[in-house]
Batch of 2 targets.
Target 1
Amino acid sequence: MLSVMLDGCIKVPVKMKINIINSLVLILLFSSHVFSQKVSLIPLPNKISSAPKKFTISSATKILANGDMAIQAAELFNSWLKQTNGYALPIVSTVLRKDRYIAFSMINDTSEKYMLKVKRRFVLLEGGAAGLIRGTSTLLQLAFQSLETKNKIPCQTIYDQPKFGYRGVHLDVSRHFLSKEFVKRYIDLLALYKMNTFHWHLTDDQGWRIQIIKYPRLTDVGSWRSGSMIGPYRNQQFDSIPYGGFYTQNDIREVVYYASQRQITIIPEIEMPGHSLAALAAYPEYSCLGTVKEVGRAWGGFDDVFCVNDSTFSFLEDVLSEVIELFPSKYIHIGGDECPKLRWSQCPKCLNTRFEKNLNNEDELQSYFIQRIEKFLNSKDRQIIGWDEILEGGLAPNATVMSWRGIDGGKTAARSGHNAIMSPGTHCYFDHYQGERATEPLAFGGYTTLEKVYSYRPIPDSLTKDEQKFILGAQANLWTEYMYDEKQVEYMLFPRLCALSEVLWTDTVWHNEKSFYKRVLQNQHLLDSFHVNYSNTWHLPSLKIGGGGKVPSLLLSLSSKVPQSIQTAWEDDNGVSEFTAYRNPKTVSSTGKLLVRSNYNQHETIVKYPFEFSKVTGAKINLITPGNKSYANLPITLVDGITGAFPWTGKHWIGWIGKSPEVQIDFSSIQKVDSIVVVYLHDPVSWIHAPASISYGETELKFESQKATTTEAINRISIPVNMEMKNIHLRFNSIGLNPEGTAGAGQNGWLFVSEILVY
Ligand code: ACM
Ligand code: ZN
């Protein structure tokens, strides 16, 4: 699970005040749309026209609904209203002329389209079964425009329908088990933001979570592990507290029904052929060696995977037969990601399958595995979805690809006429950090900020119009290695879900970052009434670092997405200065710490940014080899005085994969260089390796450092130089492929550099 990147662009000026002038500008720009009135809806509807006056909800308001689907939507509205208002409204089949009422009216339409008309005396919500539910979330949000105007809905008419047909959120319940009650709450929150698919990751190495009647050991044995990892993966520390849990088939039926009432499809994922250690601990006979004993305790992958032979397929077909009885969804997710092929290459049974089926290599064996499962599921009238590794060795004929290692998998699928769902680590992995490392709880490495998610466009420009039709939509993934409980899951989901919801529902022409942040703030009141533990760290000021002109020096500017006062102080060997209001960018030219104090909504936070200066801090630097898209930060990142943290966010590192990158730093005059220090990352489990060595010179690369070996995560190598130089040219020599015995062996390794210091 490696990916992600930094965004770093800071777009909102510091002294942003949502003032009258801003509002007027918006009105001029968007007078035909929702900005002409105060709307706090997320996602924004695609067409609104407003009128004067308001409809007021009170406990005397009636709900008029006839027919099962209309009543179902009305009941959902009531269940939400109980959260926000503490009361529900009577549902009736007729109303009198004097009544104030909300009518839920079912029409014959299978889409998610709805129409919502708000008049002074009544509200009319009209749609098919799904449209009514989508409109219900709009209605609730309208009733909750703000604390001041709660229950007063401005008169208006909305015609709305989604941009994308697939709007998904995933949840991994294997690494950390989440109760049936929480899963229902999660689904409810997805419905509130008009998502329509819940991808339930039910099995993995660290726990099997679904009861299968024919194979009771799957839950008796496979749902328990003897301990769990504590802290980041590389510490390799474990507790010895037995950990487990699973859903009975009745639990699953209950959740599926609950989701169906919210017009949310649940796609179950049963992982194969890799990430299957929990199943194999229960039934070791389906592994190659037959010796698996323990459900996984460590995060990450394991070499023991399903053995490719007929008895495994019989077992999996039995399992899937029970799964499809429980889940009515068209799609069944069969995983397919990160399957190590080591066991297969040495297993007589797997070699025999290869021989019999005339398969040239292990990739083809994996493809055979997936195609055989696909054939089985197709025969039961279901379709498969798999992670993008299912493209390797040949894609199963009817498969849908879930593109997670970037967007290339999705593009390849679309180009070959297969459906694709976009879920790239860069924008859709909500297990990654959403803010500066220092302000966030431990998470999976990576940096996926609210603005990054909001900027996401699921359809790659490089696809033709015909190919674009195969991109069904996108999905957020929540892998729970570092989400220890429900509160943490909510923290990682919100407010990023708000951004993805608008990306997937609302036409791009209506996207507007400033309006979005404002609406997120208003939505927080709604989330408060649902007691959602959303993250507030997106409120914190962003720091942008530029060269200060003279070298060494830096220009530091701060900006905020919300209106708030910001103060700064500077700390160095002489002590700490007074905090003063931040007005203009600051120039700094020696080692010290910038302290940024902000106060939004009575949350005072101080963030410290330590700067380490050298002769090249803030110098002009040329990235001869640009960083990988996922970690392509500005070149100044390497000389901005800040060393990135571990686990890494994308923010203070530049990463390259399969390359020996070169950079050049310009001094503009001759300087004496005693030594060059390079700060790099080493985290083999994430495929990140120390450079083998570093070549350096003035313009030509004439010299080479010693080998940069290490066991630490963040490292500094100091290269003695002792020369007069006008430029420094460096090449970080990659180790090439991930070595045997490390994660991703045989595939291209990553190289990460955070800082170059020259003395
Ligand atoms: C994945 O993140 N391994 C699909
Ligand atoms: Zn085998």
Target 2
Amino acid sequence: MSSEAPPLGEAGVGLPIMAKYIFVTGGVVSSLGKGIISASIGKLLQARGYNITIQKFDPYINIDPGTLNPYEHGECYVTVDGMETDLDLGHYERFTGIQTTRANSMTTGRIYKSVIDKERRGDYLGKTIQVVPHITDEIKHNIKHLGETGQYDFVITEIGGTIGDIESAPFLEAIRQLKWELGRDAISVHLTYVPYLKAAGELKTKPTQHSVKEMLSYGIQPDVLVLRTEKHLDDQMRQKVAGFCNVDLECVIQSEDMPSIYEVPVSMQRQGLDAAIMRKMGIPVGETPQLGPWRNFLNLRAEATEEVRIGMVGKYDLQDAYKSISESLSHAATYNHRKIRITFINSEFLTPDNIQEKLSGQDGLVICPGFGQRGIEGKILAVEYARTYDVPCLGICLGMQMMVIEFARNVLGYRDANSREMDETTPHNVIDMMEDQKNISNMGGTMRLGAYGCQLEEGSRVAAIYGSTQVSERHRHRYEFNNEYLAEYEAKGMKCVGRNPEANLVEIVEIPTHRWFVGTQFHPEYQSTVLHPHPLFMDFIKSALAR
Ligand code: GLN
């Protein structure tokens, strides 16, 4: 806790900080933006000087989303310590600048696995293992775990899914128990939806009332309601909700559609969401923080008139599949005084005949990460286009591998060059499986995951961009650049300008004679935040708009 913050709980000399818990749930429909609200609450409490952390509990059975198709679940976000997690963790990090770890992400699958492992070890001493108390105790343990480290004043726990789903029941029971045990140190923030019925010309609060009833049936009285709405709710409407749902009027907050998710913390602060939470918890509220740097970011966005056009070449026709990349581009465009205009270009449908037409309007191209064969030939065509027309191009993970393959095919003359991932028998395996991946048979959680050090070449463009020769970036891959070909690449102009010193893996390739042509084996997008845009994205955008 920083010096500005009033003391919390029993924190005193030599005593650990007692964390307070905020549970964020959603009702009526999914996609209400619980992640953004959780991140905003985190941001606002942080601005008051508190140390916060945010965790996400997902009710599905998968151990983690790593093996999920992005169409099912959007992007998989990777933490520094190598956990494959829900994309909401990306929002938490981008909004607050905190670093999340595996403790910030939990699924029903992991809860059950842990309980079953304990049962097999004999830890339960012959007891019958049941959802209550064993599963709920495990959930409670994982909620309190971060709070008990003594590092946080607030632990914000977002529960995925929608109230009423069968899967959420054990989580709600755990919250009910914790609220009972912790009294004012735990509160429930519930998000609902207030639809507008055009024919009636009215906003409807009934679904909210039902959702709160559902919460009550689990024994949880929501303390704060955040109502998602496309139209402004007047005070009468809020009064009605407050009265029907046993919630104080100041605790009925509305979350109207905003031009950008980054407006949400400011809107929540204006309505006093953080203050309402603090009063509910018996904490002196004090002055409203200024949010200076955040407002500066919003002002820059509002002031920008000109656009920078970036084409994202990938195979998933779903904006959430590349969430962190598009947010990183947006941060970098803002600080370069431009509006971002991202065009998604499906690589599956790129052909030599349409490539010019599809790509010529872009100031820069991002070749996206991915897995498997589908759409890779289109990515290779896009790389060739960027290389030959000198279009600024950033290749990320699979995108970097496609840069390497394109170079082998069209510059080194190996027409059949490929990655072992796509063609196991390729004679020119310029991308190969990493040595320590060869004996792995389980697909889940076994890639090269998380943050690894990268040594940048002295005097290289990337070293200048980062302003350092030692960086750390997050990874998620099984395949790598095949070092046997390195000398040939370097002789023909594609340089390895970043490598992992321990494993000698190529982490960054660059064509220095090109305007801006950089491929990274890691994912820089996991480390770009609102207040600290990533230097690679910053420089990429700068070069795109100079073109
Ligand atoms: N499929 C590639 C690999 O496993 C790239 C992965 C990615 O783009 N994240 O190496």
